[in-house]
Amino acid sequence: MEMKHFASQIIREIVIISLICAPGCSRRKEPVKETWLAMGTFAAITVADQDCEYLDKYASTARDLMRELENSLSVFKPDSEVSRINQSAGQCPVPVSDYTREVLELTRKYVEISGGCFDPTIAPLVQLWGFNGGTVPDESLDETSVRSLLRCIGYGHLVLSGDSAYLDTPDMQLDLGGIAKGYAVDVCYRKLMEMKAENVMINLGGNIRCHGMSRGNKPWKVGVRNPFDPHSIIGTISLTEGMAVATSGNYERFVTIGNKRYAHIIDPRTGYPVRDMAGVTVISTSAVEADAMSTALFVLSIEEGGKVLSLMPQCHALFIPDKQPLRIWVTHGFAQHFTPEPNLANHIFELTTCYPNQDPHCAGGQPQ
Ligand code: ADP
Ligand code: MG
Description:
By secondary structure, the chain is an alpha+beta fold.
């Protein structure tokens, strides 16, 4: 089932991205894009102009880094550092690499700013609902069983000191599925910048970061999928210099229990999968932030998410509630990078967010 999911995801993402990213080196008939499988999804490097001759070098560098990160961060690998932290919960600290320590430290910001709605210790609940190695429950799953696992959730129980990490309570588990791919994109981005890449786009399962320009000195373009129709997009984002984008949706990974569909993002306040959101796309200055915030805002929903976004002027978001008629809510900053499909222009609504740091009269963002 997981393989089927990945295969269909890969095909759809490749189709959409290749439709949108114009090839950059066709004049010289050089390849512009390399794709491969990494971290349970597809990865791609796309280049333009003078970078075409370095495509192989950039792709093999990114491939090696992603493999290394997967070996450290994946809960699907029993001897990854994260799996070892989980196996040693309540027993002893585990030595970790710089990458693992860095991503765990970065996570703190998103846990705090989301009031705990983003929390990598969500793993026991992710599994209870049948994801990431868990068995899909039947209809008899009751509220008491769900609630009883809430005591195993809490980033405050993760102790980071020096080069070790420790979950101080037995039965706690980490799952970096909401942030690790974004982090991996940033690690590759940093490395490619050291290698003096000029025009490049890195993509890991829809977590994307760009540098420079695509062909013809145009901004890189990324399609945003319509959550209600996997074969179409709702619009296109233009990305420039160092910008990143990520999407969290309810349409790729879900389980069906009874006749209800449950997505793979869990609200740590209730223990239940989020039900009223279809998709959240975030643009920010780093891929780790776009990844973590798309998951966080998926849980927070529009009104609370708008308030959090008003504290993050570098972070722009698009929300699609899971109901009809289709409504697409965008922050002002998002609208500046987004071109909706012409037939959807009157489904777009702007979220009013204001930035207290810049405007002392601002009381915080409110949806219209
Ligand atoms: P994807 O991994 O499909 O790109 P996301 O970035 O939104 O989508 O991450 C979803 C994953 O994040 C889940 O599969 C799970 O591993 C993890 N997760 C689920 N709920 C939360 C949460 N509230 N906070 C942090 N991580 C979560
Ligand atoms: Mg995410």
